[in-house]
User: What shape does this take?
Amino acid sequence: MLYPLSTCVTDIDVVNRNQSCIETTTISSKMAGGEQASHRPGLLKQQNKSHKTGRHRSKSEIDKNNKGRVHVKLISKRKNQELKRDERRKKANQLRSKKREDILAKKRAIGGSDSAPFLSAIIPIGESANLQKLLKQMKECDADAKVEITGCNIMHINIPRFRQNFSLIIPQPGDLYAALDACKVVDSVIFLVSPPSDSDSCVSHSTNNEGVLGFDSSGEELLSAIMAQGLPSPIFVVNDIDAISAKKRNDYKKLLLKQLDQMVPVEKLQVIENESDALRLFHQIGSQKQRPVYQRNMRCHFLCEEVNFKQSLDDPTVGTLIVDGYVRYQPLNVNGLVHIPGWGDFQMERIEVQRNPGEFIFLEEANPSLQETLKSENDPDPMNGEQTWPYQEEMDGQTLEDGKIEDNEEMEIKKRFPKGTSEYQAAWIKDDDNDANQEDEKEDDSDDWEDDCEDDCEDMIEDDDNESGTSSEEDEEDEMESVEMEGGDTHVYDKKVNFADEENDLKRIKEAREDELFPDEVDTPRDTLAKVRFQKYRGLKSFRTSPWDPKENLPMDYSRTFQFQNFQRTRKRVLKEERTGAKPGWYVRVHVKNVPSHLPAGLQPGYPLALVGMLPHEQKMSVINLVLKRFKNTRDQQAIPSKERLIFHCGYRRYAASPIFSQHTAANKHKYERFFRPESVVVATLYAPIMFPPASVLVFREKKDGSQIMTATGSVLSVNPDRITVKRAVLSGAPFKVHRKSAVLRFMFFNREDIEWFKPVELRTKYGRRGHIREPLGTHGHMKCVFDGQIKSQDTIMMNLYKRVFPKWSYDPNVAFPPALYNHEAEMEDAANQLMS
Assistant: This one.
């Protein structure tokens, strides 16, 4: 008989039920008492690895150690972050309204009746630009407009329809320096392009648009330089377009826009055909968004509209420069310094402000106790260094400078040649004494090969002159000199060509090519000991991690410079300081004292003369580091060697210097670069005045005819004399006998003494093996070496030696002006007449 499962109960089930009830009552009693049974995992429970926090503590461990304690800054930070929805919305509205007010304030700061006018520069970027026609259209754009011309050919236009004032400056067309100086001050720049007269037929048939569109390579170079310096708000204007037929005007504008868009993004070309188009141009100048140029906005700029010079009664070589103009961007403090591009740094005597037209009242005068000094170099104390034993020359009463002068006099020995030797033959005859001295100098330090080349060129030129003088005297006395003139035109051609310069150029090309194929490899000298030749070098276990003291064995020129304890902190403090003085927008008269008399006398009419208010410490000399990138210029594709004289446009300054190049890395040591190659980025280190970044850098290379080619662009990296630039010299050798991990090397050294000297330095191979010298073998430079792996017979063993290099003190603030990119004198005379009419 079957029973339901619920009614089928046995004695064992009763016992189990009673036991489970007892256990249940026991667990409930424990939970009521506060105790909880722990869970025991089974054998199949997954065990995960704990998180490894590494060297630092985990967040949970930090919270356990803090035990609920919170830093007071974190409490205030959390309180500020924990805002309600309405509070966050109100805060966002306040920030938005504040930004809008700042933008409106910047717009109203220029162009109004109580502020400085909109300052624009008109720069033609082609030889065919019709500047005279554009000026006439802009002057006659509005019948109610008031036009005034200042003494420096600055045109002021007041347009009542817009309730705005405008100022126009016209630098000399084709003058690179005038265009760059003008763009340092202006708010916007107008680039003028005019099609040439024969462009109608060329637009439809020619695929090469260069020269056809009125925008040639000279204009491209000028535009590239302005962009690299800091481009203000650009406006591209095309006039004189009626020279092209109406059907082809759109094609011309498309081609020109395509060519310009490759360099700078251009939204629209302004075509000026009549006076209404010129009025629309003024409206765009006054309503467009001003492009920020930070190196300009962080300093005071002052364009001189009236220039007068008052000669000093005590010293006729100097005087006081009196200039009138508007203060722009930042206040002008009379106790600070001003820099005039191309002239130098000067102090101000007093500032007067204009109350009524032509009437100036006193504003402030310089306080000698608060005024910045013009001291640029530190006065080194020669007794501050370590005392050393005197030289034998000093003990004999002769100074080291006298000894150097005597050595130079001994080196300047006139060469003598046999009769009948032409100048061309004399140029190729070597002087044994000079060659021996040059070899000693090269062995002493291979860094100065450029100086040796320059000295050789000067000596050879002097010798050519001396020989030409002696040969002319011998023409009168000796008849054998008539044989030399039989060459005729060949002899005349040899006189025109400087073969010493050609030898120098050929040597540079060979050096650059050899350094590219075998970087930093140096031949071990056989006539001198290697430990003497490389006595300034050292070996490093690791170029990245090995220590190097930045204050070790500094040159004497470092004592003339200034150094910041923390450059970035000083820069932030200087830029955040509140500035006092003449406010931006005021028309003031500035008295600049102790200006040399020859500078105002040599000022070209119409050249944009500007004053730049300097920040504190910017007149002092230091070691400045510049990040440079080679500019793609088809006229200059040669490698630039270190320590070559270059022209720098750094911020508002321009000067000449001979920098050294190094790699742009984030390490504490930077490898020296012997050449600045095309399409590369390097850091140039040189002695120059302090310049707070951001500041643009333009590098020009001066040619023998006086023209300048832009070779690189960049910016200021830092002002840090402690930046270590390390030059590497690689000594190479070849395996003579190989046995697994050991090998016998040769051709790295040539005597036993050098092997013992360089024994602690580590060796490496081109295949990545590392090793060291075990012992020398014999007396002719063979040595036994051991490596960390199998050595191949075709491998090359190298030894890296390092030494720190420093730049030369070659700072020269006097830079010659380059010739004009294109001749526009007749056009400029017509434009000047148009301004004065």
